[in-house]
Amino acid sequence: MDSLLFALVLLGISGSYVTNAEISREQLKKGCSNKPADIVFVLDESGSIWGPYFKKQLEFVKDVVGIFQIGPTKTRIGTVTFDSTSRNIFNLNTYSTATQIKQALDGVEQHRGGTRTYDAIDKMHNEMLSSSLARPGVPRIAIVITDGESEDPVMTEKAAKVARDDGIIMFAVGVGNKANRKELVSIASSPVNDYMFMVDNYAGLKTLRKILAWRACQALRVEVLTPLSEDDLPLEGVMWRK
Ligand SMILES: [Mg+2]
């Protein structure tokens, strides 16, 4: 029995979960509505990221933001971009509405320097999701979007591990044709199939955003759903009920 079928059987037994294909937008909202989270996006703006692709990253973040209920007592969003320098675009408590966040993202420009992913992860961990900004008892989630080609993969792996060991849930999203899967795996939480996504092109991000939002919702649950394998993720032609 493959994992998808197995998951479906479990779903039938528990009756409390739905598959990717069955998740409607309404269900996504409902699933996240009472689950506050502190989420920081870590976005690669280095020179290896083609300009239009960087814009796609920003659109992706805006799309994901639209799926969560945003507010001071609900889900809060922060964003850091990085090349050789890590830039705090806005903190968890900077904005209180999705509209404000989307407007702020529209104003972000790409600097196209080096790729010090580890510095950005450190900043996310030690500053943006630190105890002075993150809420006690609320899940802390980081979503790192990169082509996976940092200047020092060992330092990137270490920074991600330190963050994970401190309880931060780490998603890694690979972008670009040359995305380095190995580094993405080293960033993501376990099991990797739940927290690491590769897309062949940026169009895939549009579909991926829904899966990612769902995974983030799942990460907020105490219960654990049998993970679908990477092959099971319907990156193309996914059926989302409107
Ligand atoms: Mg780069």
UniProtKB/TrEMBL annotation:
Signal sequence extent: 1-21
Source taxon at top rank: Eukaryota
All copies of domain VWFA, residue ranges: 38-212
Keywords in alphabetical order: Glycoprotein, Repeat, Secreted, Signal
Broad class of the protein's primary localization: secreted
Intracellular or extracellular location(s): Secreted
Alphabetical list of InterPro entries matching this protein: ECM_Assembly_Org, VWF_A, vWFA_dom_sf
GO CC terms: extracellular region
Record's keyword annotation contains Hydrolase: no
Protein name according to UniProt: VWFA domain-containing protein
Organism: Ridgeia piscesae
